[in-house]
Amino acid sequence: MSKLKDIPVVMAVARARSGEKYVTPQGFTAIRDGMKSHAAAEIAAPLRKPSWLRAKAPAGAGFQTVKALVKEHRLATVCEEAKCPNIGECWNAGTATIMLMGAVCTRACRFCAVDTGNPRGWLDSEEPQNAARTVELMKLKYIVLTSVNRDDLTDGGAAHYAACIRAIKERSPQTAVEALTPDFQGVLADVETVVDSGLEVFAQNIETVRRLTHPVRDPRAGYEQTLRVLEHAKRHNPRVLTKSSLMLGLGETDEEIVQTLDDLRAANVDIVTLGQYLRPTANHLPIERFVTPAEFDHYRQLALARGFLECVSGPLVRSSYRAEQALNRNNAGLDNRGAEGAGRAGDAGDAAGAADGCGTGDTVGAAGAADGCGAGDVASLARAGGV
Predict the structure, then answer these.
(1) Close Cβ partners of 161 (under 8 Å, ≥ 6 residues apart)
(2) Which of 79, 85, 241, 302 has CB 3.0 to 4.6 Å from 55, enough for a Cys bridge?
């Protein structure tokens, strides 16, 4: 083991521990889980996780099938890399969110468990076709793509992202594509490259309220920058649905939540999702509060009153969670009141996550359409410009 800037670098094949630097198969270094390890004195004591934060255990035949497909086609998924709490539910339903351009992000947001580093221009040239074959094999009617930030690339990876979408559309023309993209450093020409690729939904997450944007997000990200990206995407192609996501539980006030919803609507965002921030490791930002299911219902009503086509809102919601159901106008089938009651009862059949959280807010749950429910509604509305 060698050292680089006082962080041990793991050279062996064994998986590095959280906060350690390691050498990737492509030869560059990265930090596991995105955040360097802190001294014990700097780590806040975890809050006790409420009983309603339960998710299905990652096991079963469907889970193993998706895992094998992902491995066979050398794909990264945000479900794994971001430690999403919904991976069991989604993979057992035969769906997954594909994470493009590798598993190492050039940014280090303090809520996110994706590894961080500088890939130095590396891209997998076979990824567009591999992603397209996976979607075809899974017979998906709706697929969510996301990606790491790639500030090391001159266009932020926009051309590669667009190539993946076009490859999917060539093999599966009836599949609706949602792209949860980076902000491309605010370069609007790069935003247009992705918007023009044939997708139905363009998403960029604002993540948190204006006051908490820094230190929650990487310094290269920005509240206003995200709003400009979303607004431009909608202006450039009004037929594309736009979407954003907000984590709660980081110290925001109700007034700030409402202001963020107002700002997103002013940017003509169509769909918003609200979920509980869950601390992925002890090196990440602590949780300030656990938002109750009843509060999530209240925030959903505030969003709908402002004119969003839908607001999917709940403790375990991530921006791509049940994305194909977004226009069913029923909170993607979630029953927060029932969830809170079941949580209090302590359902032993569910797998509780680790104390203080097991996932992140930015990079989100898996989505797709195992049964196609709602997928046609999203695609048809987007193509018709019915907003």
Answers:
(1) 100, 101, 145, 147, 179, 181, 193, 194, 197
(2) 85
β pairing state of 142-147 and 115-117: unpaired
pLDDT in tens, 263-275: 999 999 999 999 9
Both tokens of 99, joined, read 């994470």
Q: What is the pLDDT of residue 387?
A: 44
- 10 Å CB burial of residue 220 (0-12, 13-18, 19+) is middle
pLDDT reported for residue 142:
87
Residue 44: partners with Cβ closer than 8 Å, 6 or more residues away? 286
Residue 335's pLDDT is what? 86
Coil, strand or helix at 143? strand
Length of the chain: 387
Location of structure tokens 């079963």: 60
CA distance 190 to 167: 18
pLDDT of residue 330: 85
For 210-252, what is each residue's pLDDT tens digit?
Answer: 999 999 999 999 999 999 999 999 999 999 999 999 999 999 9
Residues of the chain with pLDDT under 70: 1-14, 38-46, 55-59, 61-63, 65-67, 69-71, 73-96, 339-387
Q: Can you list the alpha helix ranges (DSSP code H) found in 39-174?
A: 61-72, 78-81, 87-92, 127-138, 158-171
Q: How many CA atoms does the CB half-sphere of 378 hold within 13 Å?
A: 34
Three-state DSSP at 311 gives: strand
According to DSSP, residue 185 is labeled G
Separation of alpha carbons 128 and 268, rounded Å = 30
Reduced to 3 states, what is the DSSP secondary structure of residue 86?
coil
Locate tokens 């270094």: which residue?
29
Which helix (H) or strand (E) is 73 found in, with range?
none
Bridge partners of 313? 274
pTM, entire model: 0.81
For residues 213 and 386, give the distance between their C-alpha atoms in angstroms, rounded to a whole number: 32
CA angle 166–171–174, rounded 5-degree value: 85
Would you state the structure tokens that stand for residue 130, as one six-digit string?
A: 């591999």
pLDDT at 341: 60
Q: Are strands 176-180 and 7-10 parallel, antiparallel or unpaired?
A: unpaired
